[in-house]
Amino acid sequence: MSDSGTTAEGNHGTDPAILYMYSSALLAGVLLIIMGHTTPLEASGYVSPFLVLFEQRR
């Protein structure tokens, strides 16, 4: 039996919402570091939960 093809694997990460969330999380981390508000270690702590959500949705 074949499913309807709506699996996340069939999407290959091209969903605009997922790409936007991933890019926004990375950009936020970079901006935190550049603006001098956090160290790279702290920025990774802020950004990593969003990246984990991205990986779980894939």
| Spatial shape | elongated
The SSE order reads HH
| Fraction in helix | 55-70%
Strand content is under 5%
| SS field, number of helical segments | 2
Note the main sheet: none
Distance between the termini: 23 Å
From the alpha-carbon coordinates, what is the Rg to the nearest angstrom? 15 Å
Oligomer: single chain
Averaged pLDDT: 76
* Count of β-strands: 0
Structural class: mainly alpha
Low-confidence stretches: none
Any overview of this molecule?
- This protein is mainly alpha-helical.
- It has 2 helices and no strands.
- The protein has helices at 16-34, 40-57.
- Helix 1 (16-34) packs antiparallel against helix 2.
- The longest helix has 19 residues, at 16-34.
- It is elongated.
- The protein starts with 15 loop residues before the first helix and ends with a helix.
- The model has no long low-confidence stretch (mean pLDDT 76).
- Keywords: Membrane, Transmembrane, Transmembrane helix.
- The chain crosses the membrane at residues 17-35.
Indicate the topology.
Layout: H1 16-34, H2 40-57
Helix pairs in contact: 1-2
In short:
With 58 residues, the chain is mostly helical. It has 2 helices and no strands. The two termini are 23 Å apart.
Features:
58 residues, mainly alpha
